[in-house]
Structures are given as C-alpha cells and as structure tokens.
Amino acid sequence: MIEQCKCDETYDLRVEADIGADAIWCNKCLCNFEISYVPISIELQSELTKWILKYGEWIDWANDGIVSNGIELEEIHNQQGLKLTEKVKKELEGKYKVSFSSSTFAKRYANKKK
C-alpha cells in the first residue's frame, strides 16, 4: 500500500482518528497510511477526511481537559467513525480485514478526575 508500513504486506487495517493523521492505519505495525493510497472511492476518502478534521472537538486544548459536553461529542464522533468503518469494510470486502479504534480521551479524562 505505502512504503512507510513496516509490514511486507498488510491486509489488516484500522480506522482511527488522530491529530494530523489520515484515518487508515496498518493494524499490525500501526503505520498511518496516506488516504490517497488506500484503494477506496474518492467519496469515501472525502468523508473520512471530513470526519478526521473533527477529531478533538471535545478537547479543551487550552486547559488540557475536555469541554463540558466532551464525552457526548466524543461518542458522536465514535459513532460516525463506526459508520465510516462499515463503508470502508464494504468497499474493501474480500481484500482487507478492517476494524475500528474508538477515541477514549474524554472518558479516560473524566474517570481520572473522579
């Protein structure tokens, strides 16, 4: 798929959001793939890019915390990610195993504050 991947070949992918990264990762070596190298439609690439740009809306960057409704915002983002993962699975069916890795920042932060 792309030269950065440490695996000779990978057929095990993960959809995951992170700052400054595209949405598709090698599920073995955790290499982040440039979205244009992933064999999915331009429309789905665009949807994934729009989704990834919303990552972290629940984070209060200035205060190193979460916004007041951060857990809910993160959950909405994760639900959208699951739907997009299903679309990726459908487009790559029979070629790749695709899983989803949800964001847990807000939940972990809230539990840490208790």
UniProtKB/TrEMBL annotation:
Q: What species does this protein belong to?
A: Lysinibacillus fusiformis
Q: Output the lineage of the source organism.
A: Bacteria, Bacillati, Bacillota, Bacilli, Bacillales
Q: What is this protein called?
A: Uncharacterized protein
